Amino acid sequence: MTSIAIYVFEGAEELDWAGPWEVLAAWAQGFDDDVAVFTIGDTDQPTTCAKGLRVLTDYTLDNAPAYDVLLYPGGRGTRPQVEDEGIHAWLREKADEGVLMTSVCTGSLVYAAAGLLDDGPATTHWSSIDLLEGLGSNIKVKPDDRFVDRGQVITASGVSAGIDMALHLVARLSSRERAAEVRHYIQYDPEPPV
Questions:
Q1: Domain assignment present for 70
Q2: How many Cα neighbours within 13 Å face the side chain of 188?
Q3: Rg over CA atoms, the chain
Q4: 101 assigned to some structural domain
Q5: What is the CATH number of the domain that holds 167?
Q6: Fewer Cβ within 10 Å of end Cβ, the chain: N or C?
Q7: pTM of the full predicted structure?
Q8: Cβ atoms of 75 and 18 closer than 8 Å
Q9: DSSP state letters, 39-70
């Protein structure tokens, strides 16, 4: 089984995690590929996201089952996490365990501060490109990429790019054909009116 944990914290941007959750849950529930997707949080109490959505996560960081993939969203809640050595240590531990580390939007800032993006390419929300460049060591910022896959770490740019990254994750962990089926199921075919 492939287990995917989505971290939801105070101030997390809703679409950063809910968009990928929709893609990954559609894959897990719609196909017999032995995939599980769940949310994890800091406590078992409701978490208030960036735009006010209140969420109860499936597990806390302390009681979550083992997982193969971690998805870390962005949002205003990442600002204090950039300075939080406890969060950084947890992320480094997960990376050392071989967990595939993925982020959306400014979640990459926390990964950078933890040293996970050193000496390689990464992206983030357009408004935080300069900040990403100043974190970590020798990060090769890709401001025009929707997502950057550098092996054990995948970073996605802002908000809706997390959907693209999640479809890439399905393709990487299963196949391009399965990712296309998931994309078709969720009817993701962006043609913005503006």
A1: yes
A2: 20
A3: 15
A4: yes
A5: 3.40.50.880
A6: C
A7: 0.96
A8: no
A9: EEESSSS-EE-TTS-EE--SEETTTPPP-SEE
Q: Is 105 a catalytic residue?
A: yes
Q: Which amino acid is at 162?
A: G
Residue in 5, 15, 105, 173 annotated catalytic: 105
Supply 107's token pair. 């979640």
At 128 the three-state DSSP class reads helix
Task: Write down the pLDDT at residue 61.
Answer: 96
C-alpha 113/C-alpha 133 separation (Å) is: 11
Contacts with 161 (C-beta within 8 Å, 6 or more apart), sequence order: 104, 105, 146, 147
- How long, in residues, is the chain? 194
Using N-to-C axis directions, what is the helix angle for 14-30 and 176-185, rounded to 10°?
Answer: 110
Report whether pLDDT(191) > 90.
no
To which H or E segment does residue 61 belong? Answer: none
Percent helix / strand / coil, the chain, rounded to 5: 35, 20, 45
Please indicate, yes or no, if residue 191 is contained in any of the structural domains: no
Domain contains 119: yes
In tens, the pLDDT along 109-135 reads 999 999 999 999 999 999 999 999 999
